[in-house]
User: Which sequence fits this backbone?
């Protein structure tokens, strides 16, 4: 695993925190109704729609899990050694980026 990619993942993860805070603030203001009733109603509708989709996925997760496993397995098995190394390096980058955001 490339240490440079891991370091980049940490830096990018930390750099994205201010943007996430901004989006959280905007969503809070819109959800509170402070910026208008229309935005609050739209956000309530979007939240309800997301929850319906999420509940639908939870109740029927096995076909999705199987599909993802098949796609990943087939894709990975067709890669040469350089391709597998590149995927593994990117996964290390992603782990470092996520870890730096969550404080792991």
Assistant:
């Amino acid at each position: 695993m490339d240490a440079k990619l891991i370091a980049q993942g940490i830096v990018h993860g930390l750099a994205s925190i201010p943007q996430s805070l901004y989006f959280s603030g905007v969503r809070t203001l819109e959800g509170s109704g402070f910026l208008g009733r229309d935005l609050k109603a739209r956000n309530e509708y979007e939240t309800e729609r997301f929850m319906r989709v999420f509940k639908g996925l939870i109740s029927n997760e096995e076909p999705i899990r199987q599909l993802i496993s098949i796609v990943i397995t087939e894709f990975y098995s067709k890669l040469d050694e350089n391709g597998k190394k590149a995927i593994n390096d990117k996964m290390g980058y992603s782990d470092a980026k996520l870890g730096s955001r969550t404080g792991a």
